Amino acid sequence: MHTLLKGNEIIVVYSDKQLELFKDDKKTRREAIEYGKVQGITEQELDFLTD
What is the pLDDT of residue 51? Predict the structure, then answer.
């Protein structure tokens, strides 16, 4: 998994999927975290840093 920060947007790239979310949008952040957990990534690794 890789993350890219572009202004207010966070792009999360998994091996088979790319998700685009906004820093202040809790729903899309939660969806990205849940998808990562299904992929076997721990929740600690799914803390998308925004600074």
Answer: 60
Q: What angle do CA 37, 40, 41 make, to 5 degrees?
A: 65
Closest CA to 37 of 21, 14, 10: 14
Gap between the Cα atoms of 8 and 41, Å rounded? 24
Q: How many Å from the N-terminal Cα to the C-terminal Cα in the chain?
A: 18
Q: pLDDT by residue (tens digit) across 29-46?
A: 899 999 999 999 998 999
Cα 20 versus chain centre, distance: 8
